[in-house]
Known about the structure:
This protein is α/β, with parallel strands linked by helices. The protein has one domain (about 20-300): Metallo-beta-lactamase, Chain A, CATH 3.60.15.
Amino acid sequence: MVKKQHMPAHECKRVHEMGFPLAGSCDYYHRMNMMRYAVLGSGSSGNSYVFFDGENAILVDCGFSLRELKKRLDNVGVPLEAVRKVFLTHLHPDHACGIGVLTRNLPVPLVVGREAVAGETVVWSKLRVPEKSVLLVSEGETVDVGEFSVWGFKTTHDSRGSMGWIIDHGRGSRFMVLTDTGAWTEDMAKEALSADVLFLEANYDERMLHCGPYPLRLQKRIEGAWGHLSNTQAFDFLRRSGHIVTTQNNLAPRERRVYFIHLSVVNNSPGLLAEQAGGQMWNMTSFTVCERGKIYSDELACPL
C-alpha cells in the first residue's frame, strides 16, 4: 500500500513562516513541483479520477452528481473551479451520469470519442451535454490543458467507442487509466511501460465469478472480449508492462504505483485481490486496492 508521510503542525507553521507554500495549497503544488491525483470513486456506485498541478485540474469520467463531485473534490483539496476539461472513457452511467449536469452548469468542456457519440446515439442524447461543450476526438489525438497533454487509446467494452487515457504532464510525470475493457493489447502495455501511476481494472476473480450468483450468460459477457479485466489478466498486464519485474521481461525496477480499480462487489474481494497482489508485486511497484465508493488520493513529486 502507498504510505504518506505527514508533516507535524509545528513544522508546517515554520515552513510557512520561512516563505514556503503550505502543503496542500494550490501554490504548493505549483512551486514545489508536486502533482495531486485522486480516485474520487471507483466501481458501480460511480467512477471519477482527478489530476491537479496547482493551476489546472482534469477529470477522467464523471459518474457522480455535481453536488457529490464537488464534495469529493473538496475532500482531496481540488477546487471545482480548477477543472478545465473532463475526459470520458465510455458512456455507461457509472462513468458518465454526471457529465450533463456538470457541462450545463459550468463552462467545462467534455472530451469524448467520436465513435462513442456516433455509436451510442440514444444514450448520448439522454445526457443532454450542450453541443458547444463537446470536443470529439479520435484515438491518439492529443488534447492540451495547460501543462497536461492527454490522448486516448481504444479499449474493448460493450459500450461503443470506449477509450482509456494517457495523461502526460510537462514536468515529467505520466498517468494511465485503463478500465472497462475485456482485453489488453501489446500497445497498451508499451504505453504503460513509462507510466509513473497506473489505474488498472481488476474487476473479477475467475473462481468467484464462476461460483457466484450470476447466470451463465452474464458470466460470459463479463469475461468475454467486450467485458472486463479479471485479476489474472491485470497481473499479466503488469508483468508485460514491467510493473511486476520478472526474469522474463528483464526490466530494471523503478518506483511506480498501481491502483486496482473497478472491482465487482459480487465477483471480487478487496482482501483477496490484495493477497494475490502481495504475493507477486515484491519489486518497487507499490499498489492500492480501491474499494467501491471510497476516495484515494496522493501526491507525486515531478522530476525537476
